[in-house]
Sequence to fold (225 residues):
Amino acid sequence: MPAHPLLAALTEAVLPQRCIACGHFGAALHSHCLAALPRAEEPRCPVCWTPGPGGPCTRCLEEPPAFEALRARFRFEGDVRRALLEAKFRGKTALLAPLAVAAADVLPAAWHIDAVVPVPLHRGRQRQRGYNQAALIAKTVARRLDCPLAAGLLRRSRATAPQAGLPAAERATNLRDAFEAHDAVGEVLLIDDVTTTGATFEAAARALKHAGANSVYALAIARED
Ligand SMILES: [Zn+2]
Ligand SMILES: [Zn+2]
Fold:
């Protein structure tokens, strides 16, 4: 039976680390193993990052999302998928920092960010898991960008069904009014571990803009193509 994720995270901190990709000791994820992970290569829609022929996709042209643009460094498959699931459900949070640094490095230089904001968990789920993986990623990204972390700007106003279990058409409905933001200003960078349809970023960006943010950008470690 898997241990409580928080207990697993504590155990993880005192044991020698074994790389999730190659299985050898020395790091949670060696830098050469990180470099070999499946990248979310272009061409993609510059707005929502869906693979395509290049240029904005039909969906973004017809109905632009609430966020300005989204980026993800990796594809959610193979060792990336394993790493993010181990970090989320089995307490292997040491995997998040190297992935977060790699993700932060794909941000376009033209994005001027005033605050980094993680996609929050509902407090019930956070209590159950002991941590929010998006918040851990956001902390590393904020440090990398030398930008303030503003985790308190956004919260979940209600619990929602896990997005992963829902068909694409129901994802947006599931998140309607799920987020609440206050006193948002300037350019915000939203952070999550994985994105699929972008529905979570969309709902969170809507709340941040409603609360006064000028622009909202989104960054995920991985995208499920
Ligand atoms: Zn390795
Ligand atoms: Zn698009």
